[in-house]
Amino acid sequence: MATRKRIDLFPYFLLVPALLITMVIVAWPLVETVRLSFTDASLKPEENFVGLANYEKMFSRRFPEVIGRTFYWMALSVSFKMLVGLLGAVLLNAAVPGRALFRVLVMPPWIVPIAVGVFIWGWMYNGQFGMISGLMQRMHMIGTPLEFLAYRDTAFMATIITDVWIGTPMVTVYLLAAMQGISKEMQEAAWVDGAGRFYRFRRITLPLIMPAMATMALLSAIWTFNSFDIIWILTEGGPRGSTTTMIIDTYKTAISRFKYGEGAARAVMIVCFLSAFTGFYFFLLSRLAKRGEA
Questions:
Q1: Hey, how many other C-beta atoms are within 10 angstroms of the C-beta on 30?
Q2: 0.70 cut: is pTM over it?
Q3: DSSP-derived secondary structure letter, 151
Q4: Quick one: CATH architecture of 61-115+162-293?
Q5: Three-class DSSP category at 50
Q6: pLDDT over 70 at 292, yes or no
Q7: Angle, helix 114-125 to helix 152-180, in steps of 10 degrees
Q8: Are the C-beta atoms of residues 78 and 220 closer than 8 Å to each other?
Q9: Are the CB atoms for 96 and 207 separated by under 8 Å?
Q10: How far apart, in whole angstroms, are the C-alpha atoms of residue 172 and residue 169?
């Protein structure tokens, strides 16, 4: 009996190091963040319990506008990623000469370090020596140099374009793998019956890759919602807060203005939103799994 108990407990002992690491780097910082959100912690040595004051202050100011901007930024970015990624997957799945080379060329935005890629886009957006402004002047679309990152609307769209450029390769590869998992016999049977290319895509390819598209859209939404480096490198949340998302606002509050308590309250709200996304993601996976079994 004693030997049997040691054998049964052995796998749990193997999990202890992983559990300890998780507690140290995930659970403890999360608990500490929640605790700080109920205090007026700052650079001063002492901190006082303030209850829900940080949350009340957060929603009484412009933070609801920041939340709306974050979801708007995420929705546009994810929509463009899915659209461009789906188009790219269709083209890369087609039987065209040089298909292997095109599949390799789609990867650089994903392979290049994000900071390097964003700095390059920052140079391209520059009005004085940037390529985009120069091309638009040569094409007589604008008469004078345009500083894309100096105006609210253009800066907002510039961050979205950069995020789409970085995130599209992942979507493309994921959907391409889903398309290649479709039975060729099914496509050939539809072709023999006279179904056109667009009809086969609408009736066969699209329904079969829909689970992969839903999964990729949710994962991309979580990554985009939590994106920091793209906006910070390009605009630091400006001009006039036009690109300030929840992540950027939390960083500015806690790090730039040294209001750790208020920053912690914002971080807790971000965790709540991301937890909701994660819960919906697992719910969707379970539904898709049940549908596949049926």
A1: 13
A2: yes
A3: S
A4: Orthogonal Bundle (1.10)
A5: coil
A6: no
A7: 130
A8: yes
A9: no
A10: 5
